[in-house]
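Write out a record, fold above all:
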Amino acid sequence: MQFDAQGWCQQARSVPSPNTDARSEGTPVDMVVIHNIHLPPGQPFGGDDIERLFTNTLDINKHSEYAALSQLRVSAHFLIRRNGELLQFVPCSQRAWHAGVSSWQGREGCNDFSIGIELEGSDFTPFEVIQYAVLNNLLEALLRAYPIKHLLGHSQIAPGRKTDPGPFFDWAYVALPQALSEKSAALQKPAL
């Protein structure tokens, strides 16, 4: 995978989100945050509701739980669908609104220095092997392009508030590429 000068991945389907803004000048992008998302909750996977949420076009009348999302303005840089399709909503050079109130090692506001990757899934279902394969390819490309030092779950930067990527996300399937050990021995990955 490769990125253009703005941080758009050439191998991802681009679905630009309005829910983005500029990163602070001189702030290095050194963190990747893994999430899970499933819309509508409790229904089969698939459909375009995640895309619609991230582009502010979600029909709040479609599901009873969507009314609570009507004023929500969120995005992530990437979404990996159950079938392995990779979508990108925000270029890596911009801040996506994925982490909310968050902190890591004394740094507040993780959106400022992170890349958010959503996997279509939930806290109650194992992820697909193809999702891990795409995630690993994406991580390898991100490590080549950015000074990534931390690979974390949303629950680690927002403990008590968030649970994702959840108990069914298997960190053992996340292959830390060779580029990582060459770039930074300090990468933070959850203990298995």
